[in-house]
Design goal:
It is built from 24 helices and 9 strands. With 487 residues, it is an alpha/beta fold. The strands form 2 sheets. It has a 7-stranded mixed β-sheet with strand order 4-3-2-5-6-9-7. Strands 1-8 form a two-stranded antiparallel sheet. The chain starts with a helix and ends with a helix.
Length: 487
């Protein structure tokens, strides 16, 4: 390129760039030309009546979940007006680990009242836990139940219950009765009297005497039942009331934890199941619709659930179980009171895994004791035909307890026999034989018991610490907040 051409380009390019810049500025200025402002007009004020109607409609829609309201409005036998008697916090709460539920159907309340008042002596106390708006309480009063005690967790129901039923003084207590396990744990820290205060006024009787009171509650977790087992093991708190009748509504999964047989599988038939069936008699009474109780439980978002647990949770979405539970009157005929703590340790030690073999485990405490079991004629007899205790209805669950026995030996016992193969009565029989051996009191087992007494005080928790399937996240929350949410 010549020097003249270069000079010409240098002179032309700045002019062209200036022209382009000027053109762009003109276009932009035209586009952003200021438009005349539109005067603002104030909206007319709504009338007081219209505002109140809109506010009430909005509040009602917010307080009652849409799926709950639709079910109560469209399902035969349901009354949507009942929902107005519950605070919004209860209607919105929905979790698998909920510890309190409220009856919200009058027909179901009448059915349960018929069961509760059947063969009820006039002088026997009837305890209702979490009556809520009082649908069941109303049915009980209509059936001339006067010796009544109510425990309500939510204080917002207090005024309604007192006004509607004209209850005697101290008939209504505000407190979390299903959370006695939590109060007991807190009492252990500061030697408090929270549990004693909650149970004050309930009659005390000796264990061998008649039932002292009858109780109804809806439970959502196994913690309440663990506390009852713990009180018997430690012979304290609830144990001091004597024997009692409980009519409990629970999910199929929770019922499986207490009523399973050795054929149910590892996650259901655990140490806690064995202890419960030895301490208590239970009887399946019938099914009730789960949606007749508030809040509704959701099965969504449950992670790390095994197939059987998930199936039981899904089955419980429609119907729950009504179960009668009573402590065994002849318990101490087969298991002495002084041996309750030892039995708790025996089950805890050996049911860490159901696949633990019996002879190697016991020889860890008393060497060469396996020969005594193998050569024992009670264990070497041939298997005899026994009546199926389940009645062939549910092969993995007991609809009704079997009689307690401490003379039930395992058939064809050998070195490969596992703890998971034993029934609760067979575990008790093996334990009674184990503690009667001459080497028992000098065995390392006694040293292990002495070194872990603080764990025995929370026995029910240690039995099933891995049962996170019915309570997702509970174990982790308990570890992070032990002062308020653990046994």
């Amino acid at each position: 390129m010549t020097s003249n051409s270069l000079h010409m380009l240098q002179s032309i390019f700045p002019r062209w760039r200036s022209a382009q810049t000027s053109l762009c500025r003109t276009i932009v200025n035209d586009a952003v030309a200021i438009k005349p402002k539109t005067p603002r007009v104030r909206k007319p004020k709504a009338t007081a009546a219209a505002s109140a109607a809109a506010t009430s409609t909005t509040t009602a829609d917010t307080a009652i979940p849409k799926h709950v309201l639709e079910y109560f409005q469209t399902t035969p036998g349901m009354d949507a007006s009942v929902l107005k008697q519950f605070p919004p916090s209860i209607l919105r709460k929905s979790s698998l680990s909920t510890e309190r539920f409220y009856l919200a159907n009058r027909t179901t309340a009448a059915r349960i009242a018929d069961v509760l008042t059947q063969d009820l002596p006039a002088d026997r106390l009837l305890v209702e836990v979490n009556p809520g708006p009082g649908l069941l309480t109303e049915q009980l009063v209509q059936r001339n139940v006067h010796n009544l005690r109510l425990y309500e967790t939510d204080a917002s129901f207090e005024a309604r219950l007192n006004t509607k039923f004209n209850l005697p003084k101290d008939a209504l207590r505000i407190g979390d009765f299903n959370g006695l396990w939590r109060l007991s744990y807190l009492d252990g820290f500061d030697n408090g009297q929270r549990v004693c205060g909650m149970l004050s006024g309930i009659p005390h009787r000796k264990w061998q005497e008649e039932v002292s009171f009858r109780l109804f509650s809806v439970i959502g977790t196994v913690k309440y039942l663990r506390y009852l087992m713990n009180s018997i093991t430690q012979q304290s708190e609830f144990f001091s009331l004597g024997r009692y009748e409980m009519f409990l509504v629970m999910s199929p999964l929770l019922f499986s934890h207490i009523a399973s047989t050795k054929d149910a599988g590892y996650k259901l038939y655990r140490g806690g199941t064995i202890v419960f069936q030895l301490y208590f008699e239970h009887e399946f009474l019938g099914k009730v619709p789960s949606k007749h109780f508030l809040p509704w439980c959701t099965t969504g978002g449950t992670k790390k659930l095994r197939t059987l647990h998930k199936k039981l949770i899904e089955d419980g979405a429609e119907e729950w179980y009504l179960v009668r539970i009573v402590p065994r009157r002849n318990l101490f005929d087969h298991l002495l009171p002084d041996n309750l703590g030892l039995f708790a340790s025996f089950v805890t030690q050996h049911y860490v895994s159901r696949r633990n073999r019996i002879i190697p485990s016991l020889e860890h405490w008393i060497p060469h004791c396996g020969a005594r079991l193998i050569l024992n004629s009670n264990y070497t007899r041939k298997s005899s035909s026994k009546k199926d205790p389940t009645g062939g209805v549910l092969p993995s669950q007991l609809l009704k307890s079997v009689p307690l026995s401490s003379n039930d030996y395992v058939d064809n016992f050998n070195i490969f026999t596992e703890f998971g193969e034993l029934t609760p009565a067979q575990v008790l029989t093996l334990f009674n034989e184990f503690i009667n051996w001459s080497e028992f009191h000098q065995s390392p087992f006694m040293q292990a018991v002495e070194s872990q007494k603080h764990k025995q005080q929370r026995f029910a928790r240690s039995l099933d610490d891995d049962e996170s399937a019915d309570e997702p996240g509970e174990v982790q929350r308990a570890k992070s907040n032990k002062s308020t949410d653990t046994l």
